[in-house]
Amino acid sequence: MVGSQIPKNSNGLSLIYIKDKILSNGNIEIQTFHRQHTHLLKDFQNWRVKEIIDGKLVYYADGEQVDIPLSTWLDVRVEMPNDSIWNQQHAKKE
Fold first, then answer.
1. pTM of the predicted model, to two decimals?
2. What is the number of other CB atoms lying within 10 angstroms of the CB of residue 54?
3. What count of Cα atoms within 13 Å lies in the side-chain half-sphere of residue 34?
4. What is the pLDDT of residues 35-81, one digit of tens each?
5. pLDDT for residue 1 is more than 60
6. What is the DSSP string of 51-90?
7. Taking a C-beta distance cutoff of 8 angstroms, is the pair 36, 61 a contact?
8. Cα separation of 23 and 25, whole Å?
């Protein structure tokens, strides 16, 4: 089981979408996508600069794959299986 806390702006709106899955080898894959909030007035949308071309700002489109925004992080909580190495070692200490 994976749970995550997504970075938010000062109005409490999520800055990104996430898609996560647990792979057959137990690894976790997390993909992040830009979240524009197009339903809001333009001043309140999540405008994130992708690049500058010839002095013009180019913004990420809603749903476009992105890195986690600077100065933010993605909290991930993982429930370890009972037979995991961590749980086995923790049981030995008790």
1. 0.79
2. 5
3. 17
4. 999 999 999 999 999 999 999 999 999 999 999 999 999 998 888 78
5. no
6. EEETTEEEEPPTT-B-PPPTT---EEEE---TTSHHHHHH
7. yes
8. 5
Phi, psi of 91 (to 5 degrees): -65, -35
CB 44 within 8 A of CB 58: no
Question: How are the residues of the chain apportioned to helix, strand and coil, as percentages rounded to the nearest 5?
Answer: 15, 35, 50
Q: Which residue has tokens 């197009």?
A: 38
Of residues 62, 8, 70, the one with CA closest to residue 34: 62
- Which residue matches tokens 């794959």? 65
Decide if 86 contacts 78 (C-beta within 8 A).
no
